[in-house]
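Entry for the shared binder. Reason: the reviewer on the internal report wants the predicted structure included alongside the sequence.
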Amino acid sequence: MLYRRSLLVASAATAVALPARAQAPWPSKPIKLVVPYAPGGSTDVVGRVIAEYLGQRLGQNIVVENRPGKGASIGTSQVAKAAPDGYTLVVSNISSFAIAPPLYGDLDYDPVNDFTHITLASFNPSVLVVNPDFPAKTLAEYVAYAKANPDKLAFATSGPGSSNHILGTMLGLTSGTKLVHIPYRGAGPAMQDVIAGNVPSMFDSLPSAAPHIKAGKVRALAVSGEKRNPSFPDVPTMKESGFPDLVSYSWFGLSGPAKLPAPIVERLATEMQVVLKEPAVIKRWADIGAESSTMTPAEYTAFVKTELEKATAAVKASGAKPGE
């Protein structure tokens, strides 16, 4: 009995003497970055740049996972439900965090409270492009064609609930025409159909359309920025083309699930500030007509909230519906 008691005491003493197992430093394994759109669009372009350069800063691979559908809300919802351990992040964007919530009304996540917002990465205008064989050379000619062919002029977008869906709907409203919306599961497949001539036109974010414009595969009629984009100085704005209310920008940032540990948030925010000031990243943005923009987590959270409020009003004014 005394022998057994001695063993128990010795075992307890040994357990106390052993150091507690140190928690593995973050990140100690690859990180998943969810892009809630199909490959080839602006969200995907931004996501892959972030994955490449942020991964280098963190010393871990960042694996991009494309999860498109329902106004980019399917992949976004997946991240809202993920463990807050820093190994699942999402490219937050105007579609899934501002437009889709009021457009669908039945999403299972709160764009503000169900996420930890880290920083805004880039923003850019949209662009209206047409197949080179389409007769319109200007936005005015495009509207004239639509009026002469009511309910026949179709425009493609990356999907229902996208900023370009709202932009196309607003053009129809302000010009007194009825354009036909053809939603796709991402900008990549939509653009391929425009290039092939299956759909005559498309509202797209400038970063994903830029290489096709430069290659002459599509013709740009107008951009939605306040001013002409430096990368495409010959393309007029919608504002100067007679539509002063059609000024809009898409935006993209980095977010994770709610309740991410403060040290992880601080590390991500700090490294993203470095990434977004890298000359190579600034050049990548410029090449596709985007601009870099850094924000603190608090600033980005406030920004998302404001954008949600603005988009809710825009969706209501446009009368846009998910399937239209």
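Summary line for the report: The chain has two domains: 31-123+250-318, 125-223.
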